[in-house]
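To close the chapter, one final illustration. This time we ask the reader to focus less on the individual chains and more on the assembly as a whole: which components sit near each other, and how the overall shape emerges from the parts.
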Amino acid sequence: MAETVIHTENLTRKFGNFTAVDAISFEVSKGEIFGFLGANGAGKTTAMRILCGLLAPTSGVAKVAGYDVYTETENIKKHIGYMSQKFSLYNNLTVRENIHFFGGIYGIPKRELKEKSEELISRLGLTQEADKLVGSLPLGWKQKISFSTAILHEPKIVFLDEPTGGVDPITRRQFWDMIYEAAHRGITVFVTTHYMDEAEYCDRVSIMVDGAIAALDTPEELRNQFEAKDMDEVFLRLARGAKRGE
Amino acid sequence: MNTLKYLLQKEFKQIFRNPTILRLIFMMPVIQLILIPLAADYEIKQINISVVDQDHSPYSNRLTQKLLSTGYFQLAEYGNSYQESLKAVGEGDSDIILTIPPDFEKQLIKEDGAKLHLAADAVNGIKAGLGTAYASQIIADFNREVREEWVQFPRFSPLPLVEITSAGWYNPHISYYLFMVPGILAILVTMVGSFLAALNIVAEKEAGTIEQINVTPVKKWQFILGKLLPFWVLGMVSITLGMVVSFIVYSILPVGSFFTIYVFSAVYLLGVLGIGLLVSTFADTQQQATLFAFFFMMIFILLGGLYTPIESMPNWAQWLTKINPPAYFIEVIRAVYIKGSTFKDLLPDFGMMIAFAIGFNWLAVRNYRKRSA
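The assembled structure is written out below.
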């Protein structure tokens, strides 16, 4: 059994009377690609923000990279990468400057940072665009840069919140190749998505309905369990029971 | 320390790539300094006066001419019905009515005294007050003139003549610019400090990039210092520019030392930047931040003694000015510019500014959360 990098037990978050995340418990192992599915408003982003140390939980236990989400958020932040739903590179900095900035504030030594960013730029095939402002690039490219920046400091876990939203199928494919490559290097990938074909690419998938985890297993097991021909059907069957909409 | 370097590098790059900020930094001092002192003058000129002359005598005529020759008054109407002139006031064509009664000349000569009547439109209280004061002074002057003509030997004049001469210390010509320009310099620094920093941080909130920073190990103080320092530099540039403009346009140079001005500006800027940072922790959108900052600016300026002397405010308002940072800075800049006050003279104000700087920044750091509750 591989090392556990995310561990939660009855993790709950309430906003007033509204329970956004309702007693979720799960574990994620090192190097795993963990799909975190659910309809809009099911509580995925809230749960992810808690795990990243951006939001305080109401109750329950959660440990990320071995650190407690109540008291050790700053330690967690050293060991994770995060790519939010909102595109979050600086539009008025160039590709190179963005990579340099985010690498720098994660404390990557200067020489190593220089090598790494050049290597990254050429791997992404952006040598021509390296000195263009990020704001002028198409969304698909931005997302790839965003992801690469999020894992530049070799975190233990990378959290991706709907990374492929609004991106064309070819770029999505390439994006998943990058995810596989990262997982292969031992980086755990925690990803939310609305695309059910992407769910098939995950090692394990959890499906959230109304703040709780309704199902959690490998895609294959889930299909068997629900006697469904694909993940789409599994998802629809579970999500149809949802009480709350958007 | 390295982290801070990366944050500063990034901030400066972004500022230099933002033409709006640069324009603001350079245009604001120039336009404000040129426009406000020239346009918003304390002196009331061009008061429209209606003269109701029911006497039509040489003396009434002479009085009217004397009023108009001063340049403060402009003849709106010359008639002989008070009612009609009152109508002109009602319509906004006239500000002051001077009524000269039918037997003005006769009374003045034979009975050694005559009565005149002044009525002012007090909707604009300042205009009415100053207008009647000017008019009264001119009439008194007229009175003296007339009397001196009658007395054969002015040296043995039986009239007790008390003449008052006044000397305006530090500002001998009571120049309005000398008073106003340093005050505007102070407001300038306040605006650059509080507005720009607040808007900048809130813009990062809107873009979502602040969340990306919050999920990194960057420490609170590093992030805040990374925002504070660049805008501190911009503020210092802006006051320097402002001083250059005041020299070129108005030939105004501080009587005191530049050193004193810079030391005070440096500390004061930290304080207003603290206010800006504090605003940014409350506001979620740039609109909110702008409204917040605007609200603060209004109070800062009105209670800062820029236009109205703090000493003439009611007691409760004077207490409020004690916790109003710009009130101190306006006073300091004026003192250094006009009186040549030294650093030592202004030590109590310096203490207050340090207190503001520490207080506001402490609140801002305390209020800034990397993680929402």
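The two ends of chain A are 38 Å apart (CA to CA). The beta strands of chain A are 4-15, 18-29, 33-38, 59-64, 67-68, 80-83, 157-161, 188-192, 204-209, 212-217. With these observations in hand, you are ready for the problems at the end of the chapter.
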